[in-house]
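Example 3.2
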Amino acid sequence: LSVAPHGEGGPCVVAGGVAVQYAADGTQTHFYRRDDALPKPLACLALSPCGRYLAVGEQGKDPSVLVFEVGDPHKAPMVLEGHRHGVACVAWSPNSKQLVSVGSR
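Structure, written as tokens:
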């Protein structure tokens, strides 16, 4: 579960191979997923402090960290590779300019 700072937007949760963002007022739901490959199960997510980006970590062999633009679920994510096993955690710096990911092994 990740929530945008200062109550902007709604909470995001991982649901299998999809990240779901609920609107704060309940009027809209966004579904973020990787379309260019068979989706891998997702392990973790984090909204950036500025509220503009959603980072999502995949599980399984050779996972990626996917960075989506919040509010545009149809735009292809930025794909960050380098993990060999699942991504256990992702976190943003306070200024939203850096992202760290931690592997599960």
